[in-house]
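Escalation from tier 1.

The customer reports that the assembly of two entities below gives different C-alpha cells on two consecutive runs. Tier 1 could not reproduce it. I'm attaching the input and our single run for tier 2 to review.
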Amino acid sequence: MSVKYVPVIWNRTKLVYDVVVLAIVGAYLGIYIYLAPTFQTVTRPIDWDIYKAQAFGTCVFFLLTFILSIGPLARLDKRFLPLLYNRRHLGVITCVLAYFHVDYILGWYNAFSPINRYVSVFIVNTSFDRFLGFPFEILGILALLIMTILAVTSHDFWLHFLKPTLWKFLHMGIYLAYALIIGHVALGALQSAAGPFMTAATGVSLTLVITLHLLAARKEHLIDSLKSTLDDSGDWMDAGSPEDIPDKRARIISIEDDERVAIFRNGTKLSAISNVCAHQNGPLGEGKIVYGCVTCPWHGYQYRVEDGRSPPPFTEKISTYRIKLESGRLWLNVKALPPGTYVEPVVSPMTGEGS
Amino acid sequence: MQRAYRKAHRTIWFILALVLVFTLGLALMLRPTGTHEQPPVPLDDTAKSVLEGSK
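Tier 1 run:
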C-alpha cells in the first residue's frame, strides 16, 4: 500500500525474495552452462552457445512451472502464501530470461543466412499444416509476446488503471503462454532430445501444474456449494456458532449472489466484511486481524473490520454486512452494504477475550 | 464476479488438461526413434593434406 507513486515499493521481504530467486537462477545457469558440459559423452561436443540457449530455455520452463504452482499451492495450504507475496517479480525475471533464450537461439540457428535473423525465424518453416515439423518457434514467440504483455502490465499502475477484475482476467493469459510453451517444447526440443531428462521434466511439469489447479478448483467448488439456508425473509443466513471462530480470524460464508463474506472475530466483537480485497481480489477471510485491521494474506492490504475502510491515509474500501446474534447463533444479512459503511460490531458474551 | 472468475479458472484448466496431455502424448509417440548423435564424418584425402599442411 502506498499513497504516492513509487515504481516499486521495496521492502526487506521483497529484497530477500528477489535475492533468493536470482541466486537460484544464477546457480542453475552456472551449473548447466559450465558444469554440465564436462559430463557429456558425445563424439562431437555440443557448442557452448547451444548450452546457453538450453540453459535459459529450461530455466524459463521450470520457473514458469513454479510460478503456476504457487497459486493453487497457496489455495491448498497457507504455508505457501509467502511465495505468492512477490510472484510478480518472479514473472518479470522469467520474461527477461526468455529473451536471453531467444537471443542465443537466433544468434545460432538464424545467424548464418543472408536473411535477417528476426525475419528468418518467421519464414524458414511454414509447415503449418503438419503436426511434426510444425513451426514450433512461432509458439514460443507467441508465448514470449504474452509474457511480455504480462510483465509490462504487472505493475500496480496497470492494476489500478484496468481495475482488479479485468487485470486478473488479462493475467490469466499466463495459462495460454504455458500451453504454448508446452507445444513449443513438445514439437521442438523433445523431437531431438537425446536423453530422457527434458521429456521427464516436461511430463512432471504438466502433471504437477494440472493436478494442483484441478485440486484447488475442487476445493473452491466445495466451499461454494456449502451454503446455509436463508430464513423466511430471504435476507438472513445462518452463519453458525460465534465461539467456533478463532480470535483475530474469520469464518468464510458463501452467499447466494456469487460472493463470499468473511465474519471476523476480534476478542468478543464480531463483524462481517466482503471476502474480496480491493487490491487483487485476495481472500480476506484467510487473513487475520493485525493491529486492529484485517490484513489480506496475499499482499498485506489492510481494512478496519467495522467499516471496511483502509486506515488513513489509504483510501481503499470494501463492502460490509450486517450480522446479528439470536439464541447463540450468528445470522448474516446477505445484502451487501455500500463499500465503507460502518456497522456496529456484534458483541458475543460466549467468545471470551483471547479464547 | 468472484464465482465467474473461479468458474473461468476451472474451465480453462479442464480444457488445458485435455489439450496439453493429448498434444504432449502425440508428440512423444510420433517422434523419430533412434540415436540423434551423428557419427563423425571421415576426412577425405584433400582435407587430410590440408590438415597436415596446417600443422
